[in-house]
Amino acid sequence: MENVTKAKLVAEGLYDQPTCDMMTAAEAETLWQLHQMGAQAFDAACDELASILGHDKSQLSDKQKADIVEEVEFLAEEFDEADVAGRYQRDVTPLIACLKRHHELGLQIMNVRDVIVARSVPEHDED
């Protein structure tokens, strides 16, 4: 099971093999699940934006889909920066809720990755 999850992480381009080799099976599984949930949150944000723009997602052209993805990527970056200031706290729309979920999952991914990196850095003795 461990190798299957790590192989999926590499195949999806999420991590390289040396990084996966440093992960425990539990970390690999957790990261896989978090990345899947993050992708779902991003897709939900795209659906919300399409709805706000009055588009039926099944009728979107490739250009419209690309524009929506680009806009959601921008909004996600803006949300990540603005969340610290609490700018979106008072106006929680379905789109903001999706962006918040995406942001929170990204933070969880970073926390797991930080543990892996910290474990892989050799300790230095103080002289």
Tag the structure with descriptive keywords.
mainly alpha, 127 residues
Question: Nutshell version of this structure?
Answer:
This protein has 127 residues and is mainly α. 72% of the residues lie in helices and 0% in strands. It is elongated.
Note down, in words, how this protein is organized.
By secondary structure, the protein is an all-alpha fold. The chain has helices at residues 2-11, 17-22, 25-52, 62-82, 94-120. The longest helix is centred in the N-terminal third of the chain and has 28 residues, at 25-52. The chain is elongated, with a radius of gyration of 18 Å. The chain starts with a helix and ends in a 7-residue tail after the last helix. The mean pLDDT is 88.
Which SSEs are present, and which pair or pack?
Blueprint: H1 2-11, H2 17-22, H3 25-52, H4 62-82, H5 94-120
Topology pattern, helix = H, strand = E: HHHHH
Fraction of helical residues: over 70%
Could you tell me how far the N terminus lies from the C terminus, measured between alpha carbons in angstroms? Answer: 43 Å
Work out the strand percent.
Answer: under 5%
Pairing-aware structural class of the strands and helices? mainly alpha
Number of helices: 5
Total strand count, please? 0
Shape: elongated
Mean pLDDT: 88
Main β-sheet description: none
What is the count of distinct domains? Answer: 1
Low-confidence stretches: none
Radius of gyration of CA atoms, rounded to a whole number: 18 Å
